Amino acid sequence: MTMPRSKWLTDLTTAAGRAVELAENIKAGAGDYVAVGAVQPADDRGRGWYRYSKPASRVRLEQLENAVLAYRAGPQDKSHPVTASEVDNGVLYVKTGITTPSDSQYLFVERYDRRKQLEGRRDGLAGLPGGSLAERFGEHRLDPIPLQPTDNTRVSREQSAAFRACCAPGLQVVWGPPGTGKTHVIAEALAHLMASGHSVLLVSNTNIAVDNAIAKLVTLNRPPSGRVVRIGTPAIPEIARNPDVSLTALIQARQADVQRRIDECEEGLKRLQNDPRQSALTDAVRRVEDFGEQRYRAAADRAENRRRLQSVKSELDALEHRERDLDSALGQIIASAVMAEWAVLRAAELAQLAEVSRLGDHLQELSSLPLVHRWRQRRLARRVRSLHIEQEARRIEATRRREDFETEEVERYRGLAEPPSVTADDDPAELRRRRDTLDEDRNTLTQTLSELARHIATVRRRASDAQAKPMPVTGDEELLRKADAAGIPQLLQRLPELRRAAGTWRQELDAATRRYEELTKLAAKQRREIGPKIIAEAQVVATTLALLAMNPAVRTKAYDFVIVDEAGACLIPDLALAVGIAGKGAVLVGDYLQNGPILDDAERRDPFTAEHFSGDCFKVFGITDPRTARGVSGCAVLTEQRRFGRTVTELVNRVAYRGVLEAMSDTGGEIVVIDTEDLGSNLAGIERVGKFKGSWPIGALIAQALAEHHHLGAERESVGVVVPYKEQVRATTEFLEQSPVGPAVEVGTSHTFQGREFDIVLFDMVEDGRGQFASFESGAGDFHLSTLRLFNVAVTRARRRTYLLADTAAFRAAKSGPLAEILRLHHEHKVIRVAARELLGVGSSGEPPALGTPARDVYDALSSYVKLIDIYDQVTGIDPILHRIDHAKTAVWMWSPWIGQYQRLQDALIAAHGRGVAVNVVTLPERELTQKTLASLHHFEGRFKGRIIHMQHMHQKIVVVDDRHCFVGSQNLLSVAEGERDRRKEVMLEIDSGPMAAMLLKHERSTDLLKDVNCPKCGKTMRCVNIMSRDKKRVWLWRCAVGSGACNGEMAFTDAPRPHLRGRSPAWNR
Question: Which end of the chain, N or C, is surrounded by fewer C-beta atoms within 10 Å?
Fold first, then answer.
């Protein structure tokens, strides 16, 4: 019979549903994916692997389940699924298919993974039956731990109770501070439960806790493949690469066939990607582009224009020459034709003359006949006479025509031809045929000349067009000569053929890529089907609480036992879900003095959700200190500390554990306090963004120095940097990103380091005596409890040494708690104090600390970054500064609030600017100066042509020369007069350090101060800066001017947060 669910479980399920609604209300932005950051190819790990550019701790590893790679614009158009992921030495690596482009790739994760987790948790809680261990959890009731001893000799006598608690039915708790063997007990319990045939779920809020336990289990038990399954992205590489444990590797083993086809396809793709067709085109295009295709083509076009113009001109010259020849020939033919015509006319004239002469002779014969005969022949005589007259008239007409033709035509062409000799014997018909032939030749030649003229006109137009085109310029000939030597013309001729070949290659590659993508989709489908089967067959499933909620195959599997590690950091609903799916027994393992659970802001503001989600599991069972822990029958207590040495054990005993911890090892556990006292506000001043939160430059510098010293040293020690505030996380991370250690050295708040271990830990407390730790009061509420937990986590991470970075003033200010106890331990010579100033100055003797000491390690780390040249007073400090300015090569920055009449320093600045050195002076605005210093400022402004920036309320005194030489201290350099340097005690430190100079310039926003920003009101260039507090944040503002007659326009620096206007005055809003 099904038992009814308790009201507590029903209300908790309702609260879990409410959390989903709250998540839906606060989600923002479009798209299913959000960019995590850039990735670069990790060729050392093989094809398809990429390295995330930031520390792995910045990524929630559960979100990698459906992660993709894509270009920065997003995965909407094209993306490549992540098929594997692992963390190695603090660096996240992801794997995709080989078709993923290697350039400009970004890692994207699903935006709404948080909501999916909440939905899975809600559904999981809703599916828990009445009578489950979750209800016992809700009743705040633990089951007694069995008293029978265990025969496991690998656990100590104290650990035996914790071991029995992990293997017993019901609900138990194991409390153990860091280093007391919780992970070892969990691994032993897993091995025992497996040997007993039980199924077990191991979960934790962190990946590292799960992986540490599984790594120990694998070492102890060497289970068969698939018996232990790790779901998610492991935080340690030996688990990620274990083919018998990693779910990803187990799935791949069952995909042998499709993987073989994918491998074959990959080989084909590799061959195609290395195909010379594409490389030939790429090389040709590159060579052409490197040479300058556009310049070459323009020069070649101009040269071709000149060649064509010359060709057209040559053609035109030939045509015009032929035209002249033909015209001359035509004139000759015309002259010959005219003379032939004259010959025809002359022949006709001679013929008429012969006829007239013949008729005359005939008349004369008739006239000489006797009278009788003449009478008889009178009619004939009349006809002959008539014919004679007619022929004579014709002869006269023929003569006239010939003479007219001679006058009009023959004389015109007499220079070209002479009239031929014509006799009466010449055949007129022959003369006419010769004339007609010449006329035909003339007509033919005339037509030829007409066609030639039209052709010449066309060629002249072409010549005009060619003349209008660009002609070669200076340098074209040399450029073309070089192009010929480089084979550019031949390459350009080959490009079409190469493009055709590359097009064919592209088609082949696209087909192979489609086949590859089809196979990868098939493999992804198989993974989704195979994964649940592997989980169902596994005896031990290990994952995080987030993936337990998000993965139905994990959530719905039947488990005999559930072990929750780091339970103190888990939310109540997550724990209820985990213990609720246990069929026989569940155990919560952790430490109530490590970091507690974190509620989402929306859940914290919702009363119903906050009521059911708040609190930690130890408090639920009344375990609030070692005494109550020992008094609860269902709680096993671990107190034998094996990770760190006696000093850390004594510290945390005094601070948190009330003396119950017992150090079982004398090795390791050194505590070194790096004291920042007397380093000055520019180095060790905290820029706060709230009551306690903030950042300081010295923390980032020392973190980078120590990280490189230890991690890159001969021992290759692991290093972690713990800080209390996100502002310092960003500042330190920016430094380490430029360092050779890169993301291998993790930086984060204490929540990032829960359950982690490192050889070396730097705990940068960002503490100057007015911070969170100096203000600690024992038993003063939740805030001070969280402070204690933060400290406790930070100082219990290191196996060998913990560095604490703070100002001694913080230890003196602390009335109780961690800093007060550290001070006592120092007085007892158990904690080492290292004065940063003394190390930088190497003491009065100039000798470094002794070899093998912690102080020497700090000295060696800092010496490569900061070299303290000397410490000066008000008399000795001026000459070294003058020397640096006189020898400046690139830039001088000087922050000096007041300007006086000290001419030597002013002259040095003016001379440096005259040499081309970029000189920038930052000083107070006019309204904050006295009458005397105002006159000095005006005098200096009249002589100095460099940049002067006025900063309101400034007090810093800094000089930075050539981005390396730094002077930091109390002396206002430009205001002291020659005879006044011995009246007031001053101090100035000269530091030779590029990183220090970069830090100071960045801290003082030098890049922004160099910008020319125009006033939004009057348009003038703004040269006044103010720093204001808006919405609890420091905002840098440009001000147009300060003083009478100023428009007071302002503009925030580009990265300044926009102020919230609600509640401000109308004047402020305007």
Answer: N
